[in-house]
Amino acid sequence: MRVGWIQTLPLFGDPAANLSAVAATLDDATTTGRAADLWVLPELFATGYVFADRDEARRNCEPVPGGPTVRGLVALARRTGCAIVAGVAESAPDGRLFNSAVAVDGAGLRAHYRKAHVFGDERRWASPGDLPFPVVEIAGARVGIMICFDWRFPETARTLALAGAQVIAHPSNLVLPHCPDAMVTRALENGVFTVTCDRVGTEERAGMRAAFIGRSRVIGPDGVVLSEGPPDRTAWGTVDITPSRADDKRLSGGNDILADRRTDLYRL
Ligand code: ACM
Predict the structure, then answer these.
(1) Residue 61 burial by Cβ neighbours in a 10 Å radius (0-12, 13-18, 19+)
(2) Ligand 1 atom having least distance to the Cα of 115
(3) What domains are defined for the chain?
(4) Which of 14, 167, 169, 201 is found 20 to 30 A from 154 (Cα to Cα)?
(5) Atom of ligand 1 nearest to the CA of 118
(6) pLDDT, tens only, 78-102
């Protein structure tokens, strides 16, 4: 199986242009024989990140799965024969807004997640996620989904690993410098592949500023970095992985990183 990341520089508030940029990269990858089975895109890839206020966020949010971005992603997945995990700004039927992610393939929407750990100024518009951390069989692997700041809460990746995820897809808009290294630990402590897809550039709006650090990363269950993006420019990358490697949680000395947990002592 081949996984890929597309580190973008979204045009704020222009979902059609941002989707077209992704489509152009997928076509480029296909033409050059480097098409992935599973692509991960950044958090909020279609809209940009810093909404001036809740009204502006609402204007940029769309229903899942009925909105144009999810429909566009499904069409892209169908045309290119891949699966995609991407961050989308979601308006729920009850009026709440969520920083969400979807997994799609040619069959349509396969998983839907709402960011559990809402970060900083996002709390001005996004409600905390209320859906379980999803694991879906897609593109030849069991794929779990978390979004950006979820990395700071190890329970997130652990929950996905315990639910059987072999690959954690991690759409991100990273602003803190620690995440790329922390994801080595998330991969290692859970024995899973992780695909963090970040964006680059800065957004400065309504007195808020976010500078994004790039450095998208694919990491193996042994903590080895298999692919990495630059800190300061758009890029994309792919790498071949064997998802079943994540099913073996044993260490060479006879330990097992999930079975040896001391759930009798933990107070979670
Ligand atoms: C973040 O969660 N986008 C930092």
Answers:
(1) buried
(2) 2
(3) 2-247 (3.60.110.10)
(4) 201
(5) 2
(6) 999 999 999 999 999 999 999 999 9
**What is the predicted pLDDT for the residue at 268?**
78
**Counting atoms of ligand 1 from 1, which one is nearest the CA of 147?**
2
Ligand 1 pocket check for 5: Cβ under 6 Å: no
Q: Answer whether residue 197 shows pLDDT above 90.
A: yes
Please give the Cα distance from 24 to 34 (Å, whole number): 13
173 C-alpha to ligand 1 centroid (Å): 5
Q: What tokens were used for 57?
A: 């966020």
**Could you tell me the two tokens for 48?**
């940009």
Contact 38, 169 (CB under 8 A): yes
Provide the strand spans (E) within the chain: 2-7, 38-40, 83-91, 97-105, 108-114, 135-138, 141-145, 167-171, 193-197, 200-205, 208-213, 217-219, 225-228, 235-240
- Residue 148, ligand 1, Cβ within 6 A: yes
Determine if ligand 1 sits within 6 Å of the CB of residue 44: no
Ligand 1 pocket mutation pick from 146, 174, 179, 203 by most atoms within 8 angstroms of CB? 174
Report yes or no: 146 and 86 within 8 Å, Cβ to Cβ. no
Q: How far apart are CA 213 and CA 149, in angstroms?
A: 13
pLDDT tens string 138-190: 999 999 999 999 999 999 999 999 999 999 999 999 999 999 999 999 999 99
Pocket test for ligand 1, best of 113, 118, 172, 212 (most atoms within 8 A of CB): 172
Q: What is the pLDDT of residues 229-265, one digit of tens each?
A: 999 999 999 999 999 999 999 999 999 999 999 999 9
Q: From ligand 1's centre to the CA of 150, what distance in Å?
A: 8
